[in-house]
Amino acid sequence: MEVKRGIGVKKLLIADDDNEIRELLEFDLSHSGYTVDTAKDGEEALQKALSGSYDLIILDVMMPKMNGFEACKNIRISKPDIPILMLTAKGTITDKTQGFNFGADDYIVKPFDIQEVLLRVRALVRRSPSSNNAPKQEILKIGDIEILPNSLETIVKDKHIKLTPTEFEILYCLMQHFNNAVTLAVLLNEVWGYNSDDDVRMLRVHVGGLRQKIELNPKMPQYLQTVTNVGYKLTPFGDEAN
Predict the structure, then answer these.
(1) Is 134 within the bounds of a domain?
(2) Strand 231-234 and strand 224-227: pairing?
(3) What pTM did the predictor assign?
(4) What is the pLDDT of residues 154-204, one digit of tens each?
(5) Do 158 and 108 sit in the same domain of this protein?
(6) Residue 172 domain-assigned?
(7) Which domain holds residue 114?
(8) How does DSSP assign 88-154, residue by residue?
């Protein structure tokens, strides 16, 4: 049964060369109220992503013609605002870091619990720029740092920097609590909409990616500080203000 897309109905693209997994996801997500399009390989996924309009893209990694990492990287260049969820059997922290470095927002390892997929899809769609439920975040400027919600950019000392949706959400959360420590649990809840100890490493990888973009020396961060045994804090005037 085809679900007609109307106002408020979100459209997803699922790319996986495994027919059984692709059909399972299509069935469950369609019956959860989403409009679903599919692709069987990386090239088809890229073509559809660039020519279509989606609120979320789910990419397998090991696909023919073009792997999910390459598809993710190319999608992110042309459409930086679309949340991307990687779905793969490659589950080491090295694999996850590679996916995040190519612009993925979240990562689920096969075999997966469909309820976890639905939870993460809802969390990502919630902050999609096209979402009617997405918070209308105001422009914030504090010290050296300014964030621009409409373009998912930050400006650090007059330098414009493009962020992924997840990097933007992390920075926005820290900006709201600048100079104060924000716990890992609060960040996970604010950014992903849930708190799981298993996802702390995922958060740390995204923080590392954010530091690569906003810090002059990511190994000696001036702005995005680690608070031992707590979480992180943002010092928007740089650590020379401390």
Answers:
(1) no
(2) antiparallel
(3) 0.69
(4) 999 989 998 888 888 899 999 989 999 999 988 988 887 766 665 787 788
(5) no
(6) yes
(7) 11-126
(8) ES--SHHHHHHHHHTT-SEEEESS--HHHHHHHHHHHHHTSTT-TTS--PPPEEETTEEEEGGGTEE
